[in-house]
Automatic annotation (TrEMBL):
GO cellular component, one term: plasma membrane
Protein name: Probable potassium transport system protein Kup
Family: Belongs to the HAK/KUP transporter (TC 2.A.72) family.
Ranges for domain K+ potassium transporter C-terminal: 469-627
UniProt keyword annotations, A-Z: Cell membrane, Ion transport, Membrane, Potassium, Potassium transport, Symport, Transmembrane, Transmembrane helix, Transport
Species for this entry: Spirosoma rhododendri
Length: 656
């Protein structure tokens, strides 16, 4: 079955996975969205119906049309997400797309700092119905700590429960919403967008309340990011049911509020106010489980996002673990513990979900804006009618810029936290990418074929002690016809390294997320080989494992002999040793940098401190790795105004 057919296939299991993984964030929005808009205000028909109308059309325009219908078409061999989209279109549309990709990815990560606290807090605060003076902060923090600690063990087993639990959640909120709606079915007239327009026009400060309404669609970006887990067909099919239950929940809350015009919403919030008393305990339990699942999906998405950023050279290399055999599931300790600390600080700072609402939404608005720019490029690549592209792009830009402006009012109330974090993450990506690009641009190459005679002579020079049977160098050279000067210097000049066979390995990151291919160029049989790995940007480059398989294949095909050439070992057919030589570049003192270069290198070298060493990033056996320091000279200083003075010594002393 082709990947195209597979991604569009719909199955019961796929639908259940989609419900459990994809819609967690957007599915728990009814807990706080309407409350965020109407809290502290006297309820009026304009406010209540206008809010529902805006929610209906936000879910329709942003979530359904932009993401479910249009954006899901932009799959990168079945994978979604802002970095997958960037990898899909970058080779057609130029390097400028790196800007929206980095901005979007950074602010999507920043949004992940707010989602778990506000979701879990909103659910746990249902207990205030029974215990009005209960301090929910310790409970929320306890749940978050347990959630983050469990990440290292994987979620493969528990993940099987996510779908059924979320199915119960959506069915529950839909049923409760329908029950409340029956008492005031007239609220359905809010499907008319005029109610939303009147709300924005006539209600005092109505425009700025769009920041609260935007919370209903904050999980839309995650919907696209999780396409690889369950497929486009399953997401689209399950969205029909999910959207119906969401609209019923919002309509039910609106019906309740319509019965209390002139009053203010009570402290329990619009959602719990619609739940019958006999079901309150159940609603708190299922809401808590749903918010935990929503948080889990976001955390997993953060791991995937950072993993992609590392492979695209946007992020310092970090330790990555694979707690299960499930494709695409990974665990990044640095990100996990960083998110945990950040989430705990958010809870301690805001304490209640109503205070967190101000910090929520601003960052993800920027992500959506950036994804619109990338989608526009994708549509151009697909040769969609230019007029249609302009109309679609303009529509979404207008909607998202409107939401962005409305969300700016949240900046002083807490939005500055997610924006500041997003800017810091963006700066990290920029400094790392620019630093890597700058160091790469300074790499000087020499011809590899032209130096083969010297390598062969060194290999056969018995006067030089043998350094290793097989000597392996990682290289940034993309083809066998050249090699870095520093590599040749290491082999031939810096304590010449004699070996039986020299291997040069290059890793090429492919836009296809999971591709794994390799090519071997035989430079000189039994003397030198150039191996190129073509790995997708979601494939971890575990070179120890990959290279071993290549050598095994070559031995099986009788392309190379790996037995040691020592007579005493060879008669017993004992294999030779493999030794990797890596380079650690440091900034030389012999530099005169511009202000821009100083700024880039300062940030880059700071990030190097938290980055994994190359040997760990590539999964190499540290017992077989040698690391050599190489000075990095970006800009050589000008010749100093120094002059030689005449010596008073007339003749060398040994001639006197």
């Amino acid at each position: 079955m082709s990947s195209r057919t597979s991604i569009d296939k719909v199955s019961i299991q796929g639908l259940l996975v989609a419900v459990g993984i994809v819609f967690g964030d957007i599915g728990t929005s009814p807990l706080y969205t309407i409350s965020a808009v109407v809290r502290g205000k006297a309820l009026t028909e304009t406010l209540v119906l206008g809010t529902l109308s805006c929610i209906i059309w936000t879910l329709t325009l942003q979530t359904t049309i932009k993401y479910v219908i249009i954006t899901l078409r932009a799959d990168n061999n079945g994978e979604g997400g802002i970095f997958s989209l960037y990898a899909l279109v970058r080779r057609f549309s130029g390097k400028w797309l790196m800007v929206p990709a980095i901005i979007g990815g950074a602010f999507l990560l920043a949004d992940g700092l707010i989602t778990p606290p506000i979701s879990v807090s909103s659910a746990i605060e249902g207990l205030l119905i029974y215990y009005p003076k209960l301090d929910t902060v310790p409970i929320v923090i306890g749940i978050l700590i347990a959630l983050f600690v469990s990440q290292q063990f994987g979620t493969q087993q528990l993940g099987r429960l996510f779908g059924p639990i979320m199915l119960v959640w959506f069915t529950f909120i839909g049923a409760i919403g329908l029950y409340a709606l029956l008492s005031e079915p007239g609220v359905l007239k809010a499907i008319n967008p005029l109610y939303g327009l009147r709300f924005l026009r006539d209600y005092p400060g109505g425009f700025w309340l769009l920041g609260g309404i935007f919370l209903c669609t904050t999980g839309a970006e995650a919907l696209y990011s999780d396409m690889g887990h369950c497929g486009r067909g399953n997401i689209r099919a399950s969205w029909v049911y999910v959207k119906i239950t969401l609209l019923l929940s919002y309509a039910g809350q609106t019906a309740y509020l319509m019965q209390h015009l002139g009053e203010q919403m009570n402290e329990s919030g619009a959602f719990y106010s619609t739940v019958p008393g006999s079901l309150t305990v159940f609603s708190i339990i299922i809401a808590t489980l749903a918010t935990i699942i929503a948080s889990q999906a976001l955390i997993s998405g953060a791991f995937t996002l950072v993993g992609e950023a590392m492979r695209l050279n946007f992020w310092p290399r970090q330790r990555v673990a694979y707690p299960s055999d499930e494709r695409g599931q990974l665990y990044v300790p640095f990100v996990n513990w960083g998110l945990m600390v950040g989430c705990i600080l958010i809870v301690l700072h805001f304490r209640e979900s109503k205070n967190m609402e101000a910090a929520f939404g601003l960052a993800v608005t920027l992500t959506m804006l950036m994804s619109t720019l990338l989608i526009s490029s994708y549509l151009r690549v697909k040769r969609v009618n230019t007029i249609l592209i302009v109309l679609v792009t303009a529509m979404f830009l207008i909607v998202e810029i409107t939401f962005l402006i409305a969300n700016l009012v949240k900046f002083e109330e807490g939005g500055w936290i997610s924006v500041t974090l997003g800017l810091l993450l963006m700066a990290m990506m920029v400094f790392w990418y620019q630093g890597e690009s700058l160091t790469s641009s300074l790499t000087r190459y020499d011809t590899l074929p032209g130096n083969l005679p010297a390598l062969k002579e060194l290999s056969n020079d018995n006067a030089i002690p043998k350094y290793a049977t097989h000597l392996v160098y990682l290289t940034s050279a993309e083809s066998y016809d050249k090699i870095e000067n520093e590599t040749l210097f290491s082999i031939l000049n810096r304590a010449p390294k004699r070996a039986d066979i020299y291997w040069f390995i290059h890793v090429c990151v492919e836009d296809d997320p999971y591709v794994m291919r390799y090519k071997v160029d035989t430079l000189a049989p039994e003397d030198a080989y150039f191996v190129t790995f073509y790995l997708g940007f979601r494939v971890e480059p575990r070179l120890n494992l990959l290279f071993r398989q290549v050598v095994q294949d070559m031995v099986a095909d009788k392309e190379v002999t790996i037995d040691a050439k020592y007579r005493s070992l060879n008669i017993h057919r004992i294999g030779g040793d493999f030794r990797f030589v890596l380079f650690r570049k440091f900034l030389s003192f012999d530099n005169e940098l511009t202000i821009k270069q100083q700024l880039i290198m300062t940030g880059y070298l700071l990030l190097k401190r938290i980055a994994l060493p190359t040997k760990e990033a590539y999964g190499l056996d540290t017992s077989n790795v040698v690391t050599e320091a190489v000075p990095l000279v970006i800009r050589t200083p000008k010749r100093l105004p120094m002059h030689r003075v005449q010596s008073s010594l007339k003749h060398p002393l040994n001639q006197q």
